[in-house]
Amino acid sequence: MANKTDFNGQSDDQLVEALGNLKREQFNLRFQAATNQLEKPSRVREVRKDIARIKTLQAQRTAAAGK
Hints:
Blueprint: H1 4-8, H2 12-34, H3 42-66
């Protein structure tokens, strides 16, 4: 799981790329869960929270740029 500080140091392009990777991983984890092949169930929660962290950071940056 990445910390908030891990994402703070990244540029907007890096955040978009990380978000895409996490969404792809989340998709794969959903399939693994559906077929009972999920090795680490806690990873689903970690990925979901990391996606939320990135989206929150993007929203904060957008709001700060709009002021």
